[in-house]
Amino acid sequence: xxxxxxxxxxxxxxxxxxxxxxxxxxxxxxxxxxxxxxxxxxxxxxxxxxxxxxxxxxxxxxxxxxxxxxxxxxxxxxxxxxxxxxxxxxxxxxxxxxxxxxxxxxxxxx
Amino acid sequence: xxxxxxxxxxxxxxxxxxxxxxxxxxxxxxxxxxxxxxxxxxxxxxxxxxxxxxxxxxxxxxxxxxxxxxxxxxxxxxxxxxxxxxxxxxxxxxxxxxxxxxxxxxxxxxxxxxxx
Lengths: 110, 116
Prior knowledge:
A: 6-stranded mixed beta sheet
């Protein structure tokens, strides 16, 4: 059974702080890694994708991938109240359906 | 206009009724997916289709069936709805170029289904 594990949270951070979200996966053959943001009652929205070891930055978001340790993380710098949402980690082998974690709820207080 | 649309957006039905949820996309993607989401359980894959002639069961296909009418249309049916099928249902699409970047999935707005 291929699994993706996330801490369900809630993760609470003050406005302006760095939020760190973590995800581990069981399938060593995974090649594609994604972070989606989901507001309550809305559909998941892609934030970041990463395919090789290391860091990938996009604005306030940085995705980090370590295939040897089988974890992927998302850092959100200068967190804003609008970042309050559930963050879903997803992984896949090339050409297969994504496997999603259950999500981590982030709460940013002003 | 949205690239991935779902109809209806909300539906209340009774136990035993047949329900069809529809998904259409204008992204030109070959691959389409149906998920359900329940509080605390994340997104769970019901069925997926990699092209019109390819249908695959996902993690929780029991009680559901699908039809891929065209590249752009993928329907999910509940033959005899039961209360524990009350959930938020999402359709998603992805490309099929064979590259790992093609695995990105794009979601529709969701259908909130309540079975009484």
